[in-house]
Amino acid sequence: MADAPLKRTPLYAAHQMLGGKLVPFAGWEMPVNYPAGLLAEHEAVRTRVGLFDVSHMGQFEFRGPEAVEAVDRLVTNDIRKLEVNRAAYAGLLNERGTFIDDVFVYKLAPDHLLMVVNASNVEKDFDWVVAHSPNGLAQNRSDAWALIAVQGPRAVNLVEQLAGAELAPLHKNSIVPGKVAGIDALIARSGYTGEDGFELFVAPEHAVQVWNALLEKGKPLGVMACGLGARDSLRTEVKNALYGNDIDDAHTPLEAGMNWVVKLEKPDFIGKRALEEQKASGITRKLVGFETEKLIPRHGYPILKDGQRVGEVTSGTQSPTLKKPIGMGYVPLALAVEGAAFDVEIRGKPVPARVVKTPFYKRPA
I need a surface site. Which of 167, 300, 304, 327 has the fewest CB within 10 A? Predict the structure, then answer.
């Protein structure tokens, strides 16, 4: 049976025009980098402003008087307390308390919620959501949106110019309706890079117009189109978890150090009982950040203590900002303390590593 053809976002032709290197990712043909390269794109986001096409992400909408209660039961964070035009990051868990996905929930109106899910999980997530929600409440609206992320210290300046509105006072994890380059949009102050910025939801047929306007207006600001490579190095520097690497159906939010998105005081949510039991008994492993000496840790590399395998690397890269190799991985609780030492097996050899405080990089105040 032939593999399904790769899907393309509304910005596919724009990536080709810019010379983007297109690769398969989660069933999509996506730019991994452009001619300037990953390092230049990474630096643009850390120091100026970068654009990402994240239209491959999935969007589910929930409408009606039962919307808030239904979504609240689906996710770990407290959606009941979410104000209109605000967002919450949360875990979407199974009954075992492990991850089906990590999601963002935006409250667009008292009875209207938007859930953004990872591209690789859209079908699986929607099947789960439908099976655990009132009939007809959830709609898969992934084809109704194109999504552009504008990230970096000059992102506010750039988006304000095209929105014709003051956005600096907008709180982090807020979302407001507006216009960008004359196009109706939802403007969310959120992102995945550790920098300030926005994610712009627009109709697919207008995505190219908005993308090109951002590139043109952003020229004096040093704007740069960025691909999946820079997105990965940026999120790793701030220890943002990636589903399929750092979080999955074998790990819980408590093990991932994401207690802050778990509200056990809520009356109920799927996976709550399992997390309560794990909290009572205590976790035995934890996701940590670490640095290695010279060589770069990669996903799947063994973590060793006294020659014995005790875990594996979930994410790793050469940090462009810090100029050193960094990584993440699950280790036994005894090793999950700052300064703890272990080895990472790289190219068949043990390479010394030590646990460090995370995030590795923090945006200047």
Answer: 300
Residue 209 DSSP SS3: helix
The CATH number of 12-55+145-237 is: 3.30.1360.120
Quick: pLDDT tens for 132-166: 999 999 999 999 999 999 999 999 999 999 999 99
Q: What is the pLDDT of residue 2?
A: 57
Task: Please say whether the beta carbons of 207 and 148 come within 8 A.
Answer: yes
* Closest to 102 measured CA to CA, from 262, 236, 233: 262
Kindly give the residue spans of alpha helices, DSSP state H, lying in 48-170.
67-74, 122-131, 155-163
- Asked if 213 and 173 count as a contact pair (C-beta separation under 8 A), the reply is no
Spatial CB neighbours of 27, under 8 Å, sequence gap ≥ 6: 4, 6, 7, 119, 120
pTM for this prediction = 0.96
Count CB atoms within 10 A of the CB of residue 245.
Answer: 17
What are the start-end ranges of the E strands in 203-319?
223-225, 285-292, 302-305, 308-319
Beta bridge partners of 58: 117
Q: Write the CA distances from 19 to 22, 31, 116, integer angstroms.
A: 9, 9, 28
pLDDT digits over 192-211, tens only?
999 999 999 999 999 999 99
Ranges of CATH 2.40.30.110 domains, the chain: 284-365
- Write out pLDDT tens, residues 84-132: 999 999 999 999 999 999 999 999 999 999 999 999 999 999 999 999 9
Do the beta carbons of residue 348 and residue 285 sit within 8 Å? no
Sign of dihedral through CA atoms 129, 103, 28, 185?
positive
CATH of 284-365, one of 2.30.130.40, 3.10.150.10, 3.40.50.10490, 2.40.30.110: 2.40.30.110
Residues 6+ apart with CB under 8 A from 257: 286, 287
